[in-house]
Design the sequence.
């Protein structure tokens, strides 16, 4: 059996977000359905034309058969229907799977819809405990690390190894907010400075409050189909040119390297499939649950040399109009972070950037973008390269 | 509210029993001689099943750390230091540093194990600066 590359085989033809931030009047299931329907509408389709459905489970409203529940609610009867286990890197690895499903004929038109209500349906303590359960139950969780604490271990190691500073991390939050200020849907839009970040409350040394992403409600969805059909939709298709994954550990105490991640492997695999490199990217959406993840991803995806993420950020490159605008919607630091669905908003934003419909925050003439997510504690990585042309 | 206690699984009992009598124990492979942590049914280096429990030196260095300023629950009194420790035998484990001022902690500093009784059945390894 011959093996074919997925390069250019599928395209995103629909994209939509629900309202994000504090959305108390809808359950996670209702947000998931709303996002799916809006993405289907954006693609100019009727729900009966959808034959594949992917969702992620909700922390606030866990369902044993989540994707089936969404299909039932919508009264659609897909032939490919799957609920993926977690957020972060899984959100994009499912695109890898969905693209394969289309390439092998398992489905023709797949909706990927994800939503949760961490802000309105859980107390802060519940949200914190739900997320800190990522630690090893016997050998990590008993020591009481919070989620910021897990990432602080990476930040601290990077500072010791490369001389990275709190100001370097802060610049990533400042850049995210500058993008969010241009995005009317973002949860936090008032501009902040490096000094504001440093002056914000210390959560887990060296991470301050403003180094941490938001806690939000919201949903987001895309429609994926084969490239050969993609010209038949109302909006310009956004093609998947490359995809790659890297998986190095689950628990941070088992990571072989605290400061270099499997983003290196996922990025290399995606670049190789696309036949492109970091210099070809007009923008990048890099998973920003905490500021240090962006810094490590900048390095491991080849946007700067290893250890140079801090000085690179400090040039202002990541801000609107910079050499490499990142998280142009404001990221999870400033746009929204409803938990598992968090990186979906980076995906829909990339679709709008590559359709050239991103309004005031449009990256001029954007042709190609890197979209990267990680999950666990820098454990599971997926890199996507999306473009306007095959 | 109690601290999160580790589930006591049969495979890990020599570890937790060791903690109760003040000994840190690690699995060592009878084939490749390497140590591993956490305990497994197989050697994670060579997949051998010939694993033996050995008393560890209890010495290590700080690979990374953080100071938790807001505890994960009321059972954890902030601030407290959580660290990754590289043990002299090779494996890395997560633990907490006790009897320290957070400002005195740094990556690379030597530490040694101690034990703290968290319940009638469970003592946990904790570390102190040397």
Sequence:
């Amino acid at each position: 059996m011959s093996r074919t590359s997925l390069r250019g085989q599928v395209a995103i033809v629909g994209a939509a977000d629900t309202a994000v931030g504090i959305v108390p009047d809808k359950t996670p299931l209702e947000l998931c359905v709303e996002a799916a329907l809006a993405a289907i509408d954006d693609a100019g389709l009727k729900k009966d034309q959808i034959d594949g459905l992917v969702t992620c489970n909700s922390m606030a409203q866990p369902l044993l058969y989540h994707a089936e529940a969404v299909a039932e609610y919508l009264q659609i009867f897909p032939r490919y229907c799957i609920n993926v286990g977690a957020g972060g890197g899984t959100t994009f690895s499912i695109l890898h799977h969905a693209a394969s499903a289309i390439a092998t004929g398992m489905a023709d038109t797949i909706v990927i819809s994800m939503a949760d209500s961490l802000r309105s349906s859980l107390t802060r303590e519940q949200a914190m405990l739900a997320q800190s359960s990522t630690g090893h139950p016997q050998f990590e969780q008993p020591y009481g690390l919070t989620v910021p604490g897990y990432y602080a271990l990476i930040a601290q190691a990077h500072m010791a190894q490369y001389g990275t500073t709190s100001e370097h991390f802060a610049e990533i939050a400042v850049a995210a907010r500058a993008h969010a200020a241009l995005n009317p849907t973002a949860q936090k839009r008032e501009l902040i400075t490096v000094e504001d970040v440093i002056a914000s409350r210390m959560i887990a040394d060296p991470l301050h409050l403003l180094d941490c992403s938001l806690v939000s409600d919201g949903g987001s969805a895309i429609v994926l189909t084969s490239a050969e059909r993609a010209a038949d939709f109302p909006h310009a298709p956004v093609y998947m040119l490359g995809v790659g994954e890297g998986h190095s550990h689950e628990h941070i105490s088992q990571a072989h390297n605290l400061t270099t991640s499997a983003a290196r492997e996922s990025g290399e695999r995606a670049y190789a499939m696309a036949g492109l490199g970091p210099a070809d990217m007009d923008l990048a959406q890099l998973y920003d649950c905490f500021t240090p993840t962006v810094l490590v991803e900048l390095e491991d995806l080849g946007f700067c040399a290893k250890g140079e993420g801090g000085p690179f950020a400090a040039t202002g490159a990541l801000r609107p109009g910079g050499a490499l605008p990142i998280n142009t919607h404001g990221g999870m630091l400033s746009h929204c972070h409803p938990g598992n669905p968090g990186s979906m908003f980076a995906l829909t934003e990339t679709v709008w950037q590559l359709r050239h419909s991103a309004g005031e925050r449009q990256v001029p003439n954007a042709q190609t973008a890197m979209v990267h997510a990680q999950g666990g504690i820098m454990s599971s990585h997926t890199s996507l390269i999306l473009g306007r042309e095959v | 509210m109690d601290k999160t206690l580790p589930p006591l699984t049969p495979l890990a009992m020599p570890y937790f029993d060791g903690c109760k009598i003040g000994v840190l124990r690690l699995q060592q492979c009878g084939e490749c001689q390497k140590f591993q942590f956490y305990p497994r049914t197989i050697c994670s280096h060579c997949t051998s099943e010939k694993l033996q429990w050995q008393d560890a030196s209890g010495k290590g260095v700080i690979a990374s750390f953080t100071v938790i300023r807001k505890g994960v629950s009321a059972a954890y009194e902030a601030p407290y230091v959580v660290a990754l420790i590289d043990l002299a035998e090779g494996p890395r484990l997560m633990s907490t540093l006790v009897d320290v001022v957070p400002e005195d902690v740094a990556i690379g500093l030597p530490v040694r194990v101690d034990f703290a009784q968290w319940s009638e059945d469970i003592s946990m390894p904790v570390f102190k600066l040397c």
Notes: The beta strands of chain B are 25-29, 35-36, 51-55, 59-68, 80-87, 92-97, 110-117, 123-129. Chain B has one helix and eight strands.
